[in-house]
Amino acid sequence: MVRKTREEALETRSKILKTSLKMFYEKGFHATTLNDVAQSMGTTRGAIYWHFRSKGDILRVLWNERSSHIERTVSEFSSIMDSKKPCSIDEYMYFLEQILNCLVYSFNENTESRLFFHIIHIMLISGNDNDVLYVREQTKRVDELLFITISNIVKLIKKRDGFSDDAEIKEKITYLHFFLDGYFMNCNNLIGFSHTLYEEVSPSNVVNFIMKILFHDNL
Prior knowledge:
By secondary structure, this protein is mainly alpha-helical. Helix content is 74%, strand content 0%. Helix 7 (130-160) packs across helix 8 (166-187). The protein is elongated.
């Protein structure tokens, strides 16, 4: 048996992930088997097992690939804020814009991320097996990480600007959460809306709209 080169192995692994993503989207995660993936690729199930232990293992790698960029961005700005280094309102505004850009561009400009977001949405409302529980736990973890960080930035901006009404700040963050959830679901055609309705709305305009809603007195 000819040993694969590292480049060939990485190419095969990448193809397995892309094929699995497409099939999870088209057939549903639970309805897709590793045999389906292998047949679509024109290979054997054994070739897939050489790279991944199970369908759930593929799901976890797909999740990590798509969440790591967001988590790195959030962690980068969180570490700056935790360093106790004083920042100006403009710097905090910049931190928040970068996090929002990361979110909106990740799901709006990347076709594979849009497909995966659809798969995750369906899994969140169906079943209780280990793979579904994993998705729910990871989604909750990243969601909390995002909105704790966003809340902290908004509070710092408002406090620097002399605004101290914590209840109103919390209300604004809640509205932001509602808006982003609705935007992602509608933009990614998850609840019957057509993606074409959103094609003319650029991600930068979405971020600008959010910033104006949150800080109309600062902008």
